[in-house]
UniProtKB/TrEMBL annotation:
PROSITE patterns recorded: MSRB (PS51790)
Keyword set includes ATP-binding: no
Broadest EC class assigned to this enzyme: oxidoreductase
Family: Belongs to the MsrB Met sulfoxide reductase family.
Enzyme Commission number(s): 1.8.4.12
GO MF annotation terms: metal ion binding; peptide-methionine (R)-S-oxide reductase activity
Coiled coil: none
Xref: SUPFAM superfamilies: Mss4-like
The entry's keywords: Metal-binding, Oxidoreductase, Redox-active center, Zinc
Domain of life: Eukaryota
Protein name in the entry: Peptide-methionine (R)-S-oxide reductase
Amino acid sequence: MHANKYPPCPDCSPRSLGKTRSFYRTPLNLAILIYPSKVKTLYLSNPQPKPSLVLSHPSRRVGVAMASGSVQKSEEEWRAILAPEQFRILRMKGTEYRGTGQYDKFFGEGIYECAGCGTPLYKSTTKFNSGCGWPAFYEGLPGAINCSPDPDGRRTEITCAACGGHLGHVFKGEGFNTPTDERHCVNSISLKFAPAS
């Protein structure tokens, strides 16, 4: 997205919001889609190379693009390419029921990709049986996954670095016998398996 596509709302600039202390320059770690009813166009930019938040007039509905991501689509585009349950989990940060995912007990050799954009996320050699009811990996491919603390601080969300799709959560220090002592607990529906050739 280009910040100059629509002129900023003069009374809602990041500078004026900063003066009112209603806007803090902290990293935004979630991709958010907002349809305000009376706000013209407002850009709240993060000074760091992280996601940006864009609010727009309802007639110009736009999706929020992850600044570091290479796949940028509107909510309507995601709805058109994803199945309803994939959209609920990947874009709305849902969770599939425990033990129901197709990859929970699957251990084929290959690469697990993002079901939304096809970005390679995990090697099958990093998958392990944690008994949690969701596919578990001890690490992702370098640069493929973003980690962000949930708003309540109890868990750390993992998302696809390319499209911002919700994958699940990462847990550390649980004592699993893995090289990283991390468990990436991933929704099966967020993944697509590509077998080794």
